[in-house]
User: Which sequence fits this backbone?
C-alpha cells in the first residue's frame, strides 16, 4: 500500500480519535482505508492512543476509552439471568459422562453446569473457578484438578498460564466456556484480559470447545478474545421470550458451529 503522507502524524491520530468517538467502535481495516495507510501503521497509532487512555484496544480495532463496561463480581452475575443459566447448565451437563475429563471455567453459567454433575462417577473436572471446585468438594467420585495461578477476587478464580503444565497429563475431551460476548468478528471475548489469556490457552487443549451463554451475550464484544468462531464446536444458548432464532444465530450455524437454542 502507498501510504498517504498528507496528514502529519499527530493530526492523523487526532482524526482517528475523533472517528472512534463518533462511531463508538471501529476496525483497523476501516481506518486503514479511510486514511490511506497500512494496517500496521494504524495499529501503531491505536496502541499509542490506548497508552494515553484515549481509546481502548479491542480485537481488530478500538472503542472509546470509557465505553467498555467494568467487570462485575461472580456473586452479582449469579443473580442475573438465573433461569437461562439453569437451563443452559442442565443441557450442557448432559454432554458430560462418567469417566470424562472436562474443563469448566469460572463463569456463572459454567458454574450452573457443575451443579448437575454430582452423580457422575470417575469424572475428572478441571477448573480455574474456586466456586465450581467448592460445589463438588463432598463428592468422592469426582476428581477435581485446579491449575495454579493468581487469585482474582472479582471471579473467585485462578489466572495465569504458568501453572498450566499440570494439564498436559490430561486428555480434555470437552471445554465449557462462558463469555462476556460472542460475535462473528471477535469470536468469544471476556472483559478481563487475564481471564481471556487462561481461557485461550486451555481452549487449545480441548478436543471440543463448547460455549455456554444466554441471549444477552449475542453480538457483544469484550476487551479480549480467547477463541475464534472457527474454534468453537458448539454453542448452547437460549432464545429470548417469543424468539425462535435470529440472523446472528443463523450466521453462526453457517460457519459450521452446532447451536443448541433452548426456549425458556
Assistant:
Amino acid at each position: 500500500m502507498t501510504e498517504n503522507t498528507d496528514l502529519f502524524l499527530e493530526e492523523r491520530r487526532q482524526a482517528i480519535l475523533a472517528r472512534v468517538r463518533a462511531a463508538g467502535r471501529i476496525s483497523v481495516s476501516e481506518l486503514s482505508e479511510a486514511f490511506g495507510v497500512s494496517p500496521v501503521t494504524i495499529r501503531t497509532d491505536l496502541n499509542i492512543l490506548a497508552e494515553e487512555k484515549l481509546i481502548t484496544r479491542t480485537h481488530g480495532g478500538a472503542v472509546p476509552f470509557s465505553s467498555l463496561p467494568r467487570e462485575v463480581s461472580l456473586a452479582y452475575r449469579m443473580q442475573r439471568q438465573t433461569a437461562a443459566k439453569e437451563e443452559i447448565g442442565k443441557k450442557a451437563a448432559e454432554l458430560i459422562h462418567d469417566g470424562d475429563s472436562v474443563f469448566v471455567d469460572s463463569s456463572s453459567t459454567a458454574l450452573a453446569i457443575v451443579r448437575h454433575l454430582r452423580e457422575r462417577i470417575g469424572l475428572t473436572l478441571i477448573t480455574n473457578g474456586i466456586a465450581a471446585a467448592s460445589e463438588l468438594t463432598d463428592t468422592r467420585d469426582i476428581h477435581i484438578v485446579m491449575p495454579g495461578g493468581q487469585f482474582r477476587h472479582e471471579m473467585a478464580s485462578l489466572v495465569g498460564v504458568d501453572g498450566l503444565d499440570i494439564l498436559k497429563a490430561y486428555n480434555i475431551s470437552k471445554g465449557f466456556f462462558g463469555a462476556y460476548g460472542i460475535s462473528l468478528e471477535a469470536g468469544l471475548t471476556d472483559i478481563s484480559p487475564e481471564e481471556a489469556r487462561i481461557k485461550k490457552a486451555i481452549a487449545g487443549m480441548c478436543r471440543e470447545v463448547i460455549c455456554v451463554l444466554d441471549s444477552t451475550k449475542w453480538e457483544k464484544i469484550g476487551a479480549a478474545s480467547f477463541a475464534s468462531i472457527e474454534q468453537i464446536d458448539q454453542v448452547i444458548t437460549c432464545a429470548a421470550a417469543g424468539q425462535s432464532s435470529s440472523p446472528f444465530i443463523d450466521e453462526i450455524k453457517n460457519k459450521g458451529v452446532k447451536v443448541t437454542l433452548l426456549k425458556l
The CA atoms of residues 4 and 11 lie 13 Å apart. The chain has two domains: 9-64, 74-263. The longest strand covers residues 157-163. Residues 74-263 form a domain with the Rossmann fold fold (CATH 3.40.50.1360).
